[in-house]
Amino acid sequence: MPFSKLKQSAHLRLQRVSSPDEFRAIGFLDIERHALLGPYFYGRAITALPGALLMLEHTSPRALSGLMNAMGCTVVVPMSNPTHAVFNGRTWSASEVGLLRSEILLDLHEPAPNTFAVIRFASDMQNRGWEESEGKLHLYDAGGEQLARLQHVIRCAFALSCTPIDHRQFAFVAETLRDELMDALDNLLVLGSDRRSSQRAFERHRKLVAKLDEFAHSHPEIPLYSEALARELGTSVRTLQLAVQAIHGASLHQHLRNKRLWSLRAQLARGMPATSVSSAAFANGFSHMGELSHLYKVTFGELPSETLLRSKGS
């Protein structure tokens, strides 16, 4: 789906920037130098899948340098062909997917307009077989079919986010799209031999995590501690932690916290007149509003109050 066809909704936030100064204020980059190489335009669409923030960015010709904070793990996918970019002196082709971890100094030169997707994970995505070294850009040459599949899942996510569907239905479909996204990324970023050797264990882990998610969904009111969950599911804490790490690339705590963030977002997105951020937060187990605001923005690209205001205005 082209950027121009996207429409803001309860599930999608659109940002259009008319000057580099505005981009500096809303971006995830700490920019030291920003030179224009043509007429300026910049657009960003933001949506979320469970455990991942998705951004579609449409850029004008530019040259910039500074610091990029990839958080735990960020994947960048070219969405236009050809893609014109030189990242830290290395040509970035339209068939290459980039993986970054932690912070990285960047020097980016884009002589022509580009469109690319940025996938920022809520966890560090360790122990999936992806490259784990930090501080550099890792480029993976994707075969035509691999890249097309990855781009298709991303376009489906943004197309879904434009639709005015109920948030619970959106969350259900988003779970499926997230699984498809992770499978497409694993097929690209994990060595084939590693995938084959771990396939049986992955299936066992997937079934255990499904049981965990079902239990957490049916008991939203109770604290979720590792020992109690393990006993309820008939397994050990270590096995439960390993299963969540294998499936979601996150710790058990991160995964359960993310589930509750999505439950909170669903409540805010309904935009009921009596709903406030604080009441919805307490109902979903969050008591520290400052910490919640930070977690929510990292997960969804906006503050809880912005979700509520947009929902009430739609």
UniProtKB/TrEMBL annotation:
Classification via Pfam families: HTH_18
> Coiled-coil stretches, from where to where?
none
Cross-referenced InterPro entries:
HTH_AraC, PchR_regulatory_protein
Q: Residue ranges of the HTH araC/xylS-type domain?
A: 210-310
Q: In its UniProt entry, what is this protein called?
A: AraC family transcriptional regulator
Q: What is the lineage of its organism?
A: Bacteria, Pseudomonadati, Pseudomonadota, Alphaproteobacteria, Hyphomicrobiales
